[in-house]
Amino acid sequence: MKSVLDLSKAYKKLNPRDKRRFDSIFSFSMDAGELVVPDSMKPWAKKQFGAVAKLEQQPILKVTNHVLHEGALFNKLRADRPIQSGKGITKKALKDLAAKEPFADVEKNTPEDTFGRLYGKSEVSASNVAKYDSLHGLVIFNKADPLAFTEEETVDHFNAALSWIAAAHAEHPEAHYPVIGWNCLWKAAASLVHGHMQVMVGKHEPYAATHLWKLGAEVYKGRYKRTFWQELYAVHKTLGLAAEKKGVKVFASLTPKKEKEIILISKSADEQLFRTIYKVLNSYRKMGVESFNVAVIMPPLDKSWPGFPVIVRIVDRGNLNARTTDIGIMELYLGQSVVASDPVKVWAQVKKAL
After folding, report:
1. E-assigned strand segments in the chain
2. Are residues 212 and 68 in the same domain?
3. Is 92 within the bounds of a domain?
């Protein structure tokens, strides 16, 4: 495929077995958005999009994952735009902002968890002042610049997050549901510029979306006698959107949660996974990404979900100078993301970095 909008053509070329696998997870449809461009707008439309007809007949692709209950809408006017590198904010501006924040002096300006403060090679932990959940901490990077991380520092940060999870679980054995989150800069919901990760271990029951994924995978296996996560990867691999590197499965999602979503699947949260995450993020930076989310969802610590892998989802959250948010009613309430980036073009960039 040269574009995700070629999905219909690619689907027709699949062999019967691959079509059945695709159909067991996804459905898709093509439609057209029609409008009438007034004469007063035609010069602008031609200059902006190359032809007035591109606005008057807009092919729209809708893809739905019926196992995870997620979907995306792709519009040709958006999907065909090249991935651009913006100037964004300067390193000096980020440094100046970070210097005024509490993380500039972690021990003085942040609380510690009841099990103490943990120190890593490139980071230090803190307890979150305004918690998402009862067990919610921070891994604060030694470097203030949130976009200056190296591969080794990335591995260090994730290992520090695992240490925090172990310490929290040791003090609260009833907490079983670990999550690591990396919200980079304000478009990704970070309240502070200084680089940091969020880390949690949920009690009582899994977080809602994770529970939904688990139930969907169980229903799928009961119906098709196959492992959902392997089949999900296989569909993307068949379409040229996936690769496996040293046991870590990586693919550009057909139903991205938001822009440029890359999903990684691994048997464990280990060094190889963390290095692969770095490679994806490094390719993002080369594409001009300034703000991103990384979510690392792990199986319960009590091993009650056999076969459930470590799932990593990474998305670009847009230009830091943009005044609009990238989340609206479609994403919040209808479960169908409106996506500007083309997974085929994103994958072409990411696979070079793996």
Report:
1. 26-34, 57-65, 70-75, 123-127, 136-141, 175-184, 196-203, 242-245, 248-252, 262-266, 292-297, 310-316, 336-339
2. yes
3. no
Q: Both 212 and 338 in a single domain?
A: yes
* Six-digit token string for 199: 């880390």
- Give bridge partners of residue 243 from the DSSP assignment: 250
First vs last C-alpha separation in the chain? 20
- 248 and 295 both lie in a single domain: yes
Q: State pLDDT tens for residues 294-348.
A: 999 999 999 999 999 999 999 999 888 877 788 899 999 999 999 989 999 999 9
Residues 254 and 132 in one domain: no
Q: Which of 253, 234, 259, 254 is nearest to 244 (CA)?
A: 234
Per the structure, the complete domain to which residue 167 belongs is given by 101-203
Which amino acid is it at 70? E
Q: What is the pLDDT of residues 210-251, one digit of tens each?
A: 999 999 999 999 999 999 999 999 999 999 999 999 999 999
Closest CA to 165 of 209, 208, 212, 133: 133
Amino acid identity, residue 55? L
Q: Is residue 327 part of a domain?
A: yes
- Retrieve residue 120's tokens: 């890593």
Look up the pTM and report it.
0.94
DSSP state for residue 15 in the 8-state scheme: -
Q: Are strands 57-65 and 123-127 parallel, antiparallel or unpaired?
A: unpaired
In a domain, 91, yes or no: no
Q: Is residue 94 part of a domain?
A: no
